[in-house]
């Protein structure tokens, strides 16, 4: 049975967006046209591909099976196009990266800008969200994670380890009771994650300090850092954030010192896509250098 690749493109867009309107926006088609194309594809296949409701379009088991094949075909076409255009020189096209907002705010802007400086035809999109990205639905081409994935058709490369410490501004410390032991933290305002929105066990930092209550909470690292910047309390802060906080000082560094790891995760079907391989190589090297540079600055400042 022959298929129109345009129908596959529509199928992939709806599978990833789970919405006719969102898929239509991505494809520059009106939702009614998208719906007709999906209906035509299902009619040709003799099988429904989606569970349809007022909430949207969600792949059923038949749709999941087709998605795996359609994704591989999409990857093969992209690889063929790259080879025909001889992309042995500069990188081009769009690369979308999903990342927790700590790295997205304090590391990736300068790293990605440097890669784009060397590759003027390249466009980089950073999706900064504190959650796990679904690479099978192509929410991103690659994602930074804090844990190595254990399921799915994914491949992971270790980027680098990084350090975190308990910290507060000098102004906060000067105006509050001294902190000499961990138990002294109970008399202080603690900043951290909203407990039921912790998206990865690796960000459950305060569990390692014995603190059981957070007064100021956010699912965003940027919000937490800005509270620290304003002298609102103490928080576990990435060392690579500290150079942006002029008055920050580590607290109990000999007792509260954490190490975590960044991984770069990609879909296994992209393993042979040379453009993404080359970008990943430059990206990993850039993040490693930037973490080392910023942590060195933090060590000299505190």
From TrEMBL:
UniProt keyword Transcription regulation, yes or no: yes
Family stated for the protein in its record: Belongs to the LysR transcriptional regulatory family.
Alphabetical list of SUPFAM superfamilies matching this protein: Periplasmic binding protein-like II (SSF53850), Winged helix' DNA-binding domain (SSF46785)
GO biological process: DNA-templated transcription
Pfam families: HTH_1 (PF00126), LysR_substrate (PF03466)
Keywords: DNA-binding, Transcription, Transcription regulation
Protein origin, superkingdom: Bacteria
Name listed for the protein in its UniProt record: LysR family transcriptional regulator
InterPro entries with a match to the protein in the record: LysR-type_TF_proteobact-type (IPR058163), LysR_HTH_N (IPR000847), LysR_subst-bd (IPR005119), WH-like_DNA-bd_sf (IPR036388), WH_DNA-bd_sf (IPR036390)
MF GO annotations: DNA-binding transcription factor activity; sequence-specific DNA binding
Domain HTH lysR-type: 3-60
């Amino acid at each position: 049975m022959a298929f129109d690749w345009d129908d596959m493109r529509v199928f992939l867009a709806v599978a990833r967006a789970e919405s006719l309107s969102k898929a239509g926006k991505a494809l520059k088609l009106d939702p009614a046209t998208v719906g007709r194309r999906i209906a035509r594809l299902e009619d040709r296949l003799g099988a429904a591909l989606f569970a349809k409701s007022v909430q949207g379009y969600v792949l059923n088991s038949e749709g999941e099976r087709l998605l795996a094949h359609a994704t591989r075909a999409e990857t093969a076409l992209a690889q063929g196009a790259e080879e025909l255009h001889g992309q042995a020189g500069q990188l081009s096209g769009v690369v979308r990266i999903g990342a927790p907002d700590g790295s997205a705010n304090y590391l990736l802007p300068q790293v990605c800008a440097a890669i784009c400086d060397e590759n003027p035809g390249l466009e980089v999109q950073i999706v900064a969200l504190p959650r796990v990205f679904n690479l099978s639905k192509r929410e991103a081409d690659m994602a930074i994670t804090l844990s190595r994935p254990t399921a799915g058709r994914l491949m992971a490369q270790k980027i680098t380890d990084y350090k975190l410490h308990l910290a507060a501004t000098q102004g906060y410390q000067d105006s509050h009771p001294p902190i000499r032991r961990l138990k002294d933290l109970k008399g202080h305002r603690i900043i951290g994650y909203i407990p039921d929105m912790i998206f990865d066990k690796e960000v459950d930092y305060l569990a390692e300090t014995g603190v059981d209550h957070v007064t100021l909470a956010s699912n965003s690292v940027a919000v937490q850092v800005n509270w620290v910047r304003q002298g609102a309390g103490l928080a576990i802060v990435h060392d690579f954030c500290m150079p942006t906080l002029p008055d920050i000082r580590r607290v109990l560094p000999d007792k509260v010192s954490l190490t975590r790891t960044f991984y770069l995760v990609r879909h296994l079907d992209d393993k042979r896509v040379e453009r993404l391989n080359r970008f990943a190589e430059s990206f990993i090297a850039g993040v490693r250098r930037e973490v080392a540079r910023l942590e060195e600055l933090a060590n000299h400042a505190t």
